[in-house]
Amino acid sequence: MHDLLVISDEIYAELTYDEPYISFAAVDGRREGTILVSGFSKGFAMTGWRLGFTAAPAEILQAMLKIHQYAIMCAPTMAQYAAIEALRNGEQDVEYMKKSYRRRRNYFVQSLNEIGLSCHMPGGAFYAFPSIRATGLTSEQFAEKLLLEEKVAVGPGGGFGAGGGGDICCSYASSLGQLQEAIKRVQPFFERVLRAFFCFHRPRGIRTAIFFDWPKKLCYNIMTHIQFGI
Prior knowledge:
The chain is mainly α. It has seven helices and six strands.
C-alpha cells in the first residue's frame, strides 16, 4: 500500500442528498494519513465568517501552527462562539436546508434537461454542470453571451480545468422563484445559440424548420453528433 498523505477538503460534507457522506479519515487505516480541512460556510450557511478548522496527526498540526499563529492569529471570538452554537444546536437547520436544496436541485436539473441542456444529477453541494458542447461555443463564450443577453450569471466550466471546457457551472442556492426565472431566460437563449450553430453546420437533406420542430433532447443529440462526428 502506498504511504500517501491525503488532504481531504470536506466543506460540503453536510450537503449530500442521496447517500451518506463518508470522510476519507474514516476509511480503515487512513486516519493517521489524512489532513481533514473543512469549515462552516457551506453546511451552516456562514459564508463570510471565514471560519474553518482542520484535523490531522499532532505533529502535522504543530507544524501548521508555527506558520498560522504568525500569519493570521485566530478567528474573531464572536465567530468562534457562533460556530459552537451551530455545532450544538444547528442540526435541524442543516436538515431543513438540505431538504430545500434537494427540492431546488430536482427542479433545476430536470428543467435543464427538458430544455435540452444535458445535465447529470449532482449528489451533493449546490452546483449543476450542464453541457453546452452542442452549441459550438466555449464555456467562456456561452457564459458571457448569456450574461449580456439575458442577465443570467453562470460560471465557465473551463475554470475548473480542461475537462470542464464544454460545461457551465450553475448554482441552485438561489430561491426557487429565481431558478424558475433563470430557466425562463435560458431556454430561448439556448434555442437561439443552437439555431445559429445549426445554420453553419446543417446536414444535407435536413431542413432547419423541420429540425426545430423536433424534441429539444433529440436536437441536442443530433447537434452533438454533427459537432464531434460521433
